[in-house]
């Protein structure tokens, strides 16, 4: 069956018509839950730093998105409740594209529209009511790109798992992802060591240059030791020298493309596998 835009549009509308009450309920619940989690920090006298806000905002996106995404393709699995959906006169590509638009485009967009003002409001309460001085959530193009890349990987993995698992889809997908993530995290330091073992910083901050100049040392002649054993995806590289133990250095543009390219490859591979699984199920 070839792709048809009218069929795709009708399936898109059908998805909304059958689930709009649930989606509207979720749109109300997500900001409330996000505000409750964030308010827990100032209420318990814990610091609501910018980093903490970023973690809460990012992880909430992954969790809520995973729960939402686990329902998008699971209706096409061969079970009693899914027979009606399998008989729909639509192609596998149309089914997948509807799930991608709802789960990977509309959901994160709506989450940002609803969640970001909540984070700013809680930060204002933290400052005005609780008297804490913390920076607000950091929304930069780099942070958005990193969070969205990770979201695409996680969400595509959830979509893939929803076609293989019949019960407790999100929980099984979450545990599977954690196992895979931990496995690659263990290899991450080794991989970085192999790729970047001889990398040396080429530019230095004015503060660092001034400090070294006061000591009569030329920074460009220092032999730095790569200390990225525990570096994570998208993180800055860390180097050590006999003059300083921790020097965070931003990766060059030639290195930055590596993690983003891996995200794209994983994302496309998982969606392709999901498409073939849908075709297999439809047969």
From TrEMBL:
Which UniProt keyword terms apply here? Membrane, Transmembrane, Transmembrane helix
Q: Which organism is it from?
A: Pedobacter punctiformis
Can you name this protein? ABC transporter permease
Q: Which residues cross the membrane?
A: 21-43, 55-76, 96-125, 145-165, 174-196, 257-276
